[in-house]
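Researcher: Here's a chain I'd like modeled. Treat it as a single chain, no partners, no ligands.
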Amino acid sequence: MSFAQPLPSPGLASGRRRPKNLPSLPPSAFSPPSTGTSDMFPLPPTPSALFPAEVIDAHLRSEALRLDLAGTEVADVVLLLNDLERTVLPSTQNVRVLAVVAPFELGGPIPSGYSDHSESSGIPQSLYTSYAASHEAPEARSQAIETLKWAFSNSRLIDIDVQCDVMSNVAKYEAFEDLPHESHNRPSWRQEGPHMSGTDQILANILPPPHDLNLPIVKLLADPSYRNYQAHSAALSLFPNLYVKFTPPMWNQTVPGPGDPTSEMDQHREWKRKIKMFIGPVLEAFGYERIIFGTSPSFAVPSLPNHADWYALVRESFAELAVEQDAIDAIFSLNARRVYGPS
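Model: Modeled as a single isolated chain. Structure tokens:
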């Protein structure tokens, strides 16, 4: 019996001698994309190159008129005066005043000597006051309602410096939220929807809110105080004529100076991380059209920060969140001009 011999295997050696068919790439693979392609897929703005077209400092205490925002020209300021009855402007050192804001005591006697000099001076004038934990007491609350009624009838705009943490505490928030409605003899909007008067209200010292800097960001995300902050930001945004000022916070530390990239414990970088955590909920709820930049802290803070340091922190924080140029311009100038400027 005979068997056919199998064909010889080419083996590895013969396989290596075969020429390889390499894939050919088109010439376009070695050339940069066309202008049309880059326009279709634009890169996000570089934080270091995103600057506002102009800056309006919408929260400047009169004792802090000397401005230096690291080369950024301050177009105008909203000046917070020290006395309700003295509306004569102090020396502004070539800084233009967009508006002046005169104080009144929340819970104090109804002011009798107040007069609006907007028409005679050509500079819009409005009112501001401070809200503290002491206003939660029944007697103080009743008087606060009466003075707010007076303010609503005498000003188109009211600034409220919130000096207690209403954003993370549910009971404090509810007491604070109901105050404007009681001043209008109206029930809370939680029962009947948001019913605000024609007076715009601007809240300072809630963005960022009072906070313990020793609390790590990982724990902050799961902390009940931060969840309350998110919920209260969303609730406040339902008021259509309510604005939020972005001012230096009550964090029991001085606003840090320029960052040091080589340092592992760079305070500038740490502050930015925390600030961006608090920007997120407010930006999502209010939008950039109702956030206003200012450089002076709450009146509960005696010392004033370096204006340039605070400006750098805020600008870089928003830029690193990849907001667009129109949002930067609105937050740093356009919103303030629209709200405080001549109506």
